[in-house]
Amino acid sequence: MFSVSVVLRLVNGTGAFHYELLTSEGKKIRKSASVTVDRPGPGRPTRAQQELRDEELLGVALDIFLERGFELTTMEEIAIQVGMSKRTVYARYEDKGALFKAAVRRAIEGYTVPRSALEAVASGDLEETLAAIARLRIAKLATPVAIKLQRILSSQSYRYPELFHAAFDEGAGPTVTFLVELFQQHSKRGVIHVVDPRRAATAFLSLVVGGPARLIVSGNKLDPAEIDTHIRFALDLFFHGIAGPPI
């Protein structure tokens, strides 16, 4: 059947080199995805204002970690950039590692295609449904926060491997689950033959979505026509694998 391996591209070295080449592009991403928050005036901020400020803190922290690398980023620099006192930042996150993990987990939330969106594109035509799911996933991976997340995970997963697993389980998990159910339904109808639906789902994401995603993260711009050509070609290969008798 299918054999799926997740390949993690680690940038050479463990020092500041991780992000130096991405600094200028990281700044462009930061400008296009910055969080605009009304700063609270005098007096105690409301709970909503506190949540918005924390959202801003995590967004700015993620940008700075991307631009400068984990080693060169300081809590003081983050506090200055977000307009908070260092004491306030430490009151929310005990150290740089805790802030980094929180910033990455926030990005993972924006990396997920919700089930409602998957259900909205599902139809009786399996091939068209899979093509629509691939477009949704690629579009999500092309957002500024997803690009930042993938780049950070590529060079910092050795430090926090649990974040890499969380990105897959929480970020891609809903899509994988939906695909598993889809393959089970169509297998029962005899339309396809899939012995291991979960492996088939991860193989689908690797084959159909993985290529465009890697190009986008590398800084390449793909127009919709190029993406659709890749999706159709990869889907054709995928269907040749699941249309025959079980092996």
Task: Describe the protein.
68% of the residues lie in helices and 0% in strands. By secondary structure, the chain is mostly helical. The protein has two domains: 92 residues, Homeodomain-like (Arc Repressor Mutant, subunit A); 130 residues, Orthogonal Bundle (Tetracycline Repressor, domain 2), CATH 1.10.357. The N terminus is likely disordered. The N and C termini lie close together (6 Å).
Describe the secondary structure blueprint for this structure.
Layout: H1 17-20, H2 23-32, H3 47-68, H4 75-82, H5 86-92, H6 96-109, H7 115-121, H8 126-141, H9 144-156, H10 161-188, H11 197-217, H12 224-242
Helix pairs in contact: 2-3, 3-4, 3-6, 3-9, 4-5, 6-10, 8-10, 8-11, 8-12, 10-11, 11-12
Helix/strand order: HHHHHHHHHHHH
Low-confidence parts = 1-38
Number of domains: 2
Q: Span from first to last CA? A: 6 Å
Biggest sheet character: none
**CATH class call of the largest domain:** Mainly Alpha
CATH homologous superfamily title of the largest domain:
Tetracycline Repressor, domain 2
Structural class: mainly alpha
Strand content: under 5%
Q: Which fold name corresponds to the CATH topology of the largest domain?
A: Tetracycline Repressor, domain 2
Number of strands: 0
Task: Write down the Rg.
Answer: 20 Å
Average pLDDT:
80
Q: Which range best describes the helical content: under 10%, 10-25%, 25-40%, 40-55%, 55-70% or over 70%? A: 55-70%
Helices, by number, come to 12
Shape descriptor reads elongated
What's the architecture of the largest domain in CATH terms? Answer: Orthogonal Bundle
Quickly describe the structure.
The chain is an all-alpha fold and 247 residues long. It has helices at residues 17-20, 23-32, 47-68, 75-82, 86-92, 96-109, 115-121, 126-141, 144-156, 161-188, 197-217, 224-242. It contains 12 helices and no strands.
